[in-house]
Amino acid sequence: MNRRLFQRAGALGLFVMLALAPWGLRAQTAEAPDQLIRRLSNEVLDTIKADKDVQAGDVRKVMGFVDSKIMPHVNFTRMTASAVGRNWRQATPEQQKRLQEEFKTLLVRTYAGALSQVRDQTVSVKPLRAAATDTEVTVRSEVIGRGEPIELDYRMEQTPGGWRIYDLNVLGVWLVETYRTQFAQEISARGIDGLIASLVERNKSAASGRKG
User: Fold this and answer.
1) DSSP string computed for 14-83
2) What is the mean pLDDT of residues 200-209?
3) In CATH, what class is 3-207?
4) What distance lies between CA 169 and its chain's CA centroid?
5) Given pLDDT bands bounded at 50, 70 and 90, which one contains residue 84?
6) Rounded to an integer, what distance in angstroms lies between the CA atom of residue 182 and that of residue 88?
7) 8-67, pLDDT tens digit by residue?
8) Of residues 174, 198, 173, the one with CA closest to residue 184
């Protein structure tokens, strides 16, 4: 898989989640998930194109967006638990907290560096294939720009607080499944604390500009 395309599409996905935040409190919104993604994707692209700091991959600014707007409207506990897999239940509350913190930092830093790639892309959202009573859906879309379209899908769940995103698919690869394989190998070799230490090191390397 082309790593640059993955990061570029991931950046778009991250900012779609950002745009979803103001609407997340509509627990029983009449707007279908695919309609919501379609409308807000355009707002996301406008935001990226208009903000030079975001385009430059300003990590601190992106982190601020995540903390204040994205995290309240993403089931990040479910996302992290799914990535850690069966070992999540063996982790202490403190370890679970650390895993969520470091995993969030890892994802944000990964996508922050890709924001500068966003220029003239558009997003095409496919009609939703789901029943009106479904509480979990997959919204499928494509990022259209130069070259081949980039597949970008979202797994979403409806909660009392509104729709929440808990997984992202780029080019046929689901984010949670990708990290689950990596995390399982790390835990098998070094345990939960070893995984946390590895994530801390990777985030420090990214922060200092070194490749980890």
Assistant:
1) HHHHHHHGGGTT-TT-SS-HHHHHHHHHHHHHHHHHH-HHHHTT-HHHHHHHIIIIIGGGB-HHHHHHHH
2) 85
3) alpha beta
4) 9
5) very high
6) 14
7) 555 555 555 554 444 444 444 456 778 777 776 777 777 777 888 877 767 777 767 667
8) 198
